[in-house]
């Protein structure tokens, strides 16, 4: 379903995450930041998400200071990983869209969910 380029990009991201040697709490906080990111299209309650996003970002920043005192750049490295996640997500969305176009067209319910605004 995915191209070799997409898979290589994804593997590079995984390897970069492994190189950071983060703990589970950091991973959990990072996942929260990703999930509540208010910059996706068709989001309802954007103000609430923005508040939650800001709180999780601040939690991640504070936790990085405590958990990784020897690495003053850990928080910034994690933020750069968020940018990579967005890029991978966009590429995945394009891939799914093009691969599943016929399914989306043929099934009205799938089409309604996929194109929901």
Primary descriptors:
single chain; 117 residues; mainly alpha; Retinoid X Receptor; 6 helices; flat; zinc ion binding; nuclear receptor activity
Describe the structure.
It is flat and about 55 Å long. The chain has one domain: Orthogonal Bundle (Retinoid X Receptor). Helix content is 77%, strand content 0%. By secondary structure, it is mainly alpha-helical. The mean pLDDT is 84.
Strand content: under 5%
CATH topological fold name: Retinoid X Receptor
Secondary-structure class: mainly alpha
Q: Indicate the CATH class.
A: Mainly Alpha
The domain count comes to 1
CATH superfamily: Retinoid X Receptor
Mean pLDDT: 84
Rounded to the nearest angstrom, the radius of gyration is 17 Å
Which descriptor suits the 3D outline?
flat
- Poorly predicted regions are none
Number of helices: 6
Order of helices and strands: HHHHHH
Report the major sheet: none
CATH architecture: Orthogonal Bundle
> How far is it from the N-terminal to the C-terminal residue, by CA?
26 Å
How many beta strands in the DSSP annotation?
Answer: 0
The helical percent reads over 70%
Organism: Branchiostoma belcheri
GO molecular function: nuclear receptor activity; RNA polymerase II cis-regulatory region sequence-specific DNA binding; zinc ion binding
Keywords: DNA-binding, Metal-binding, Receptor, Transcription, Transcription regulation, Zinc, Zinc-finger
Protein name: Bile acid receptor-like
């Amino acid at each position: 379903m995915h191209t070799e380029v997409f898979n290589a990009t994804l593997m590079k991201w995984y390897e970069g995450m492994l190189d950071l040697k983060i703990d589970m709490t950091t991973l959990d906080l990072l996942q929260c930041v990703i999930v509540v990111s208010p910059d996706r299209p068709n989001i309802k309650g954007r103000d609430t998400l923005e508040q939650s996003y800001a709180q999780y970002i601040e939690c991640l920043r504070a936790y990085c200071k405590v958990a990784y005192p020897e690495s003053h750049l850990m928080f910034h490295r994690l933020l750069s990983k968020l940018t990579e996640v967005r890029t991978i997500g966009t590429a995945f969305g394009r891939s799914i869209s093009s691969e599943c176009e016929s399914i989306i067209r043929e099934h009205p319910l799938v089409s309604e969910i996929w194109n929901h605004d």
